[in-house]
Amino acid sequence: MENKGKRDEKLLRTSRTSLSFNQREKEAIDLYCHKYMISNKSKFMREAILTEVLKRFDEDYPTLFEFEKPNLFYQK
Predict the structure, then answer these.
(1) Which residue of 12, 21, 22, 65 shows the fewest CB atoms closer than 10 Å?
(2) In whole angstroms, how large is the CA radius of gyration of the chain?
(3) With contact defined as beta carbons under 8 Å apart, do 19 and 45 qualify?
């Protein structure tokens, strides 16, 4: 059975990124979060961004003639 009190050190969020929105964008995000009862905007934005990133990686998966398998955590 997994120890729920212990966190995986590799999954701790230690890197911070800042986003800036204009007033109309912020109002749209606020309205969306209110309408869909999203209380954690950081989680919402993180999931939205990562969903797009992983979708693009999936779309760009190598074809039959590409030999290297993509690795999300390593770039040449």
Answers:
(1) 65
(2) 18
(3) yes
Note whether 28 and 38 are within 8 A (CB): no
Exposure on the CB side of residue 14, measured as CA atoms within 13 A? 5
DSSP state of 68: S
Please indicate, yes or no, whether the overall pTM of this predicted structure exceeds 0.90: no
CA–CA gap between residue 11 and residue 15 (Å, rounded): 11
What is the CB-side half-sphere exposure of residue 72 using CA atoms within 13 A?
7
For every one of its 76 residues, what pLDDT tens digit does the chain have, with 9 covering 90 and above? Answer: 456 667 788 888 899 999 999 999 999 999 999 999 999 999 999 999 999 999 988 887 776 666 565 566 655 5
